[in-house]
Amino acid sequence: MAFLQSVKLVFALLALTTPSWAVGVAPGQIKNFVTFGDSYTDSSYYPTADGGYAWPTWAAMYGDLNLYGFARSGATCSNLLTYRPFPPIMGWQLPAYLNETNNGTLELNPEETIYTIWIGTNDLGVNALLTGSDAPATSIVEVRQCAIDVLKILYESGARNFIMQNILPLDLTILYSNYSYPNTYWDLERNTTEWNVYMKELVRAGNEITSLMLDALVPTLPDAHIASFDSHGLFTDMYNNPQNYFNGTAPHNVTGCIHSCVYTVDSTAEPACTIANGTDADSFLWYDELHPSQQSDRIVAREITAVMTGESNQWATWLS
Questions:
Q1: Helix, strand or coil for residue 242?
Q2: What is the value of pTM for the model shown?
Q3: Spatial distance between the Cα atoms of 162 and 264, rounded to a whole number of angstroms
């Protein structure tokens, strides 16, 4: 009995001290992170879709990490499922990453590198699942399976540490709200209540499907460390409790946006645009009708950085 207890103690200590055996990553383990996704994550230009720096740029600064950004604005997971004329993960971002690692341009130690995947906004939205895509047989199931496949391909290429970010509550954005108006992203007639209800169901179903798929995937990937990050929960909390997150000089605002442009249906007239300037902008959840604000992105960066640096975080669950 004493021998068995000693063996159990040894394995328990190894689980705590050896990153490849433990759940999650250890403090100080991660030095690099690689991003895949859409405009919510695209750090390749400035100002980005949030009017400033994308969250990965802030995270690299907060965690003193090296950022390798492959996310691109407008992206879907795969243009074979939901086509948009932008660089998708499967057709462009992932091949670009694999090409750089295979030809030696990019050399990353797997133990010291973590990969983030945040995709779905454009798959679910206008000109895709919400309004009908070019591939009518595509459903939310195929779209979320694609995101899981991205993780599997990265694992097969040697990656071992991952953060899968679920879809934020798109029904709370101005574009898909029940009080929406003609804007930059959709200036035609539509039933705003119907869009709001449908988008809420698409997001909830998509996130639950992703969670179930991840649970099934984890046991098949030895030595992988996979975190599920609840972007939906974080943004819902920011929406419901803005006083805990926003510190601008204007009143807290979660139903409007910093850069709003109201179009007139069936008109060539210029839109009526309003912009919140200076420190007033830090009071807003949304930058425009679809994208999070700079302050929101700093919050995302803070929370994701905590996960990457091995700290406990209420929005992340390590599955392996």
A1: helix
A2: 0.92
A3: 44
